[in-house]
Every structure is written in C-alpha cells, then in structure tokens.
Amino acid sequence: MNDFASTPKLTLLPAVDVAGGKAVRLTQGEAGSETNYGDPLDAAAEWVDQGAEWIHLVDLDAAFGRGSNAAILRKVIKQFRGVNVELSGGIRDDASLEAALETGASRLNLGTAALENPEWAADVIGRYGEAVAVGLDVRGTTLAARGWTKEGGDLWEVLARLEDAGCSRYVVTDVTKDGTLRGPNLDLLCEVTARTPKPVVASGGISSLDDIAALRDLVHLGVEGAIVGKALYAGAFTLAEALDVAGD
Any idea which residues carry the catalytic annotation? Predict the structure, then answer.
C-alpha cells in the first residue's frame, strides 16, 4: 500500500461527448452507436461535483463533419471556469482553431488535421505549444481519421513526424476498445511511451478501478492521464472513487 501511495498520481479526464446537443457515448467510435445521457451541462456538473480537475469535451458532430455543437461547448466551458477543459472534435483549419481557442479551453486536441494536413498541424504546434495535443486514434498500428471512418497512416511514422514538429502531448486511443468496457490497451501505451519523452493521455476501454490502478502504474513511463467515459456513465464506479485510486 505504501508503494502505491508513493506512485505519482494519474490525472483523470471524465469525458463529455456531445452529439445533437446531448451528452452521448459511442461504441468503438461508430456513428449511430450513440447512447444518450442527456444534457452536457448536467453531465459536466456531475463530474465537477465529484472533484474533476479536467473535462475531456468532444464535439462528435464536428468530428464526423456533420454539424456543430459549438454553442453548447462554449456554455459548458463558461459554466465551469475553474475546471480545465481539453476540447476535441473538428479542429482542422485556422477558422475552427480560432473558434476553439476563443472558447477558453485549456487545451485543444488535433485529430484528423494532424494526419491529413501535417504542415498546418506543425505550424499550430509551433505557435501554441502546451495548449495543443494531438490525438492518435489507433487500430493495431494504423491510425484512424475523419471520426474514425478513414485510415490515417502508420502510427510510428506519424509519431516520428509529430516528434520532429515538437508536439507537446499525445492522446492515445485504441479505437477497438473505446466504449466497450474491455480494459485499456496497456501494451500500446507502453510502446508509445517508449518512443516519445512527451506525456501521453490514455483513452479507451477503462471498465474498472483496477484499470485505473493499472494505468497509474504506467505514470513513471510517461502516461500522464486517462480519459474515462462509458464506465462512469454506466455506473461501474464513481468519479470520486476513480480519483481516489488515481492518487487525488
């Protein structure tokens, strides 16, 4: 117990994924697999009430290129000014980047743009540094783009390119695990952290407090945090319980 108590803490980012104005969860990132969990403001309020220091806020409609929930996302960020927000979904050009920055989010996630428009992404990384992370959404070692509907290249080639660009942080999702409650891909996380000194945020598959503990064991390798979604909404554990295991 003493060894565990001395392990550096794992930062948890409860997820609020928004589609059609509602908080939803997908299974393996597939459009049409949404489970509706109501008002995004209520979802965020619940995580904040339980002690969240970060929220992972995603505009799924923007990610899929089928619309925008920008007004709702702005409202969530404004409502919870004391909480850090990592904003993701549809940030692909200067206009969407500026709009995302103006929300007051603490950090922006680039996804598809980092794969399809590497020169623009490198410029953004150079300009905004710590305020920008890149999402690496993976099936095997093949990246997924366009809301996980298209292939986006080889993970290791893209990671090397992003390292050259000076990317400050990566959000690594095993698409096959996301929303399935089958446990995180620890091997993938170990492989990624072995190839970059930058912090990594884990995403996908967390189903139990044991999974949180297993990810906390990887903090010394470079796993800085973990996005928790479906397990919280399904009531597998409370955020307060998860934060306790994570070291808060």
Answer: 17, 137
